[in-house]
Amino acid sequence: MTAEQQARATLADVARLAGVSAKTVSRAMSGDGSVSEVTRERVMTAAKRLRFRPNTLARNLRHGGVTNSVAFVIGDITNPFYFNVAAGIERELATKGMTMLLATTDDAPGSEAVVVDALLAQRVRALIIVPIAKDQSYLEGERQLGTPVVCVDRPAHHLVADSVVLQNRLGIEEAVRSLIAVGHRKIGFVCSPAELYTHQERLLGYRSALLEAGITDSRRYERLEPVLGATAEESVRELLALDDPPTAIIAGNNRASTAAWRELFNRSPRVAFIGFDDFEFADTLGISVVAYDPIELGREAARLVLARLDDPSGPPRQIELPTHLIRRGSGEVPPPDAPDSTIAP
Amino acid sequence: MTAEQQARATLADVARLAGVSAKTVSRAMSGDGSVSEVTRERVMTAAKRLRFRPNTLARNLRHGGVTNSVAFVIGDITNPFYFNVAAGIERELATKGMTMLLATTDDAPGSEAVVVDALLAQRVRALIIVPIAKDQSYLEGERQLGTPVVCVDRPAHHLVADSVVLQNRLGIEEAVRSLIAVGHRKIGFVCSPAELYTHQERLLGYRSALLEAGITDSRRYERLEPVLGATAEESVRELLALDDPPTAIIAGNNRASTAAWRELFNRSPRVAFIGFDDFEFADTLGISVVAYDPIELGREAARLVLARLDDPSGPPRQIELPTHLIRRGSGEVPPPDAPDSTIAP
DNA sequence: AGCACCTATGTCAACGTAGTACATTTCTGT
DNA sequence: ACAGAAATGTACTACGTTGACATAGGTGCT
User: Fold this and answer.
1) Which nucleotide is nearest to B57 (CA to C1')?
2) Quick check: A51 and B145 CB within 8 A?
3) What would the mean pLDDT of A73-79 be, rounded to a whole number?
4) Same domain for A140 and A73?
């Protein structure tokens, strides 16, 4: 790399070379005002020669001081779920020439406001956030200043904002009903951590579907870890070690799904299993899951942002993305005592 | 959302409220010049009252017109490999208060320059790119203007730039040697597509390790798809349908790994298998792989950017990240004709 | 007292772009 | 031929921040 560093060309430089004023160059480049064909040619040639590239910073400053980047704030960047959501956001934004800024809070609720603050100082156009702190009211002022805030996966706390969530209850309900249809009555539920909105919703779905089938004594089969990081493997082991163990297990989130399956893999007699969130190999391994489209989740979030930028008024919208059960075998394993069981005497 | 939209407070607004000049506010906020304690208090109070947030756009414009975002340009955002690299970049940049802009080219070589151009117009501070086009010489001008360019996973074509790549040859060589040690002589290599630098390197590693063991007739076991999208499943089927099929197969990239394993899963007699790039479940399923740390790959790339920003001079650096074989069983399956084979008569 | 020096603050201009206002030229129609 | 419209170009300025420079008052030393 050379030590020399030629200066970046500006509108004025191009104007000088082309022998016109800066404004004329601006017009020629943007095609806004009217410029003669000869002049336009000359300007374009000069611009190309100088490798001129309009400074978006200056342009944005001139135009109200906002960038055209949308920030996506997540807790844990290594969770594949977020990655797919990010993909959806990026693609949707790209159709409008906008870009995505990715930031993480490392799952620390306390750092959410700090990270968001830094992003706002950068004048992001909008904020898409997976809420992790218990309170998003700190964003109220910013919202009033016209920065759209869209929550993904879970709604905000103490803040009026658009959001995109999954049909959590319906998804788990479908899973429970499916297991009941195969003959299961003792169904476990493993999920972590307990305090998240999504997990609460899924727990409610689990309970309501059981109740619907007249099963009222399943509390002992619920295992929601109180803290992040507690392993779902342990929960599964606990459940199977009960005197009257469940014959089927449902996992309430993607990390719990993989952990639970790890524990159930190679165990016999087979325990029926349904996970939440599809993943690579789930098809090859024959694992039934409650699936949804994370990319679409991101796209919807981005669409909400675009809609809000277009028209800031109107009530907040909450979009519910459908979930659906994919039957691949693991969820269709009958209970050992079923009449059609192969282990029957 | 209210239709009203109060204006965003500026330095001047804060100054007016605090009864000082704009410059004093600037000093008080940045802690740069000297400001008396009383004044600082008054300014801070005024700033808080007005919810003042310094406009990074303006600040950056004042300082040479560059943002503090680094763009990461990838081909296919749904490839988990890139996601982990992105995670590494984001984390490393965050330590320096910089942010990551994510952009994709949808694996279309032609759109690389277009996407990059848009990013440069946004005055990104640096560029981290997974080269996909055949020629990155279009970045030469920008590099001379002081924008660091770092290539990830593969080096740039026709451009002097720092890069971070994997020890591709060594990784595959280790895999081949390991298979040979177990007794294999007929080893297949599946990878796609053929034209990528990484895949070429891995192919060379495959060949050299075989040669080292005196195996010279393995060309018929090489299956590199000429085009993106061709399935590795087919390649595996082709290999196993040969009159003299290989007893072991190595996959040269992550997509090929999963595809190949899908095909080999449940097939008997078992074919030894070693994949490239670790993935979830590989441990549970007992799949041996040539692994590396994608997050570290991203971190290194970000470090190169930071180093280059710090000191633009000096020769380009190419960092090689280590790869290592993780033995989990699938790569330790002996050939059917081995003396210690369980199928021996 | 005189001087150097330091602190606390203020004034002005500039970063690069583009909107507003206005000046100039060229082209219409009567 | 001439008013008026249309086409084309220029000058000035603001966007929000900060560096360069200036100023006013205070402190310490000779």
Assistant:
1) D16
2) yes
3) 85
4) yes
How many angstroms is C1' of D18 away from CA of B212? 65
pLDDT in tens, A7-48: 788 998 998 888 888 888 888 887 777 788 888 888 889 899
Q: How many domains does chain B have?
A: 3
Residues B267 and B298 in one domain: no
Q: B interface mutation test: which of A77, A98, A127, A309 has the most B CBs within 10 A?
A: A77
Nearest CA in chain A to B10: A65
Low-confidence ranges of chain B (pLDDT < 50): 1-4, 341-345
**B101, closest residue in chain A (CA to CA):** A101
Residues 59-118 of B with CB under 7 A from strand C: 61-62, 64-65
CB atoms B122 and A67 under 8 Å? yes
Angle A254-264/A232-240 helices, nearest 10 degrees? 50
Lookup: tokens for A20: 């016109």
pLDDT tens across B86-127, in order? 999 999 999 998 999 999 998 888 999 999 988 998 899 999
Q: Which domain holds residue A42?
A: 11-54
The model's pTM is: 0.90
Q: How far apart are CA B257 and CA B291, in angstroms?
A: 12
CATH number for the domain including A227? Answer: 3.40.50.2300
Classify residue B3: in a domain, yes or no.
Answer: no
- Which contacts of A256-259 are long-range, i.e. CB under 8 A and separated by 24 or more positions? A256/A190, A256/A191, A256/A192, A256/A232, A257/A289, A258/B280, A258/B281, A259/A231, A259/A232, A259/A233
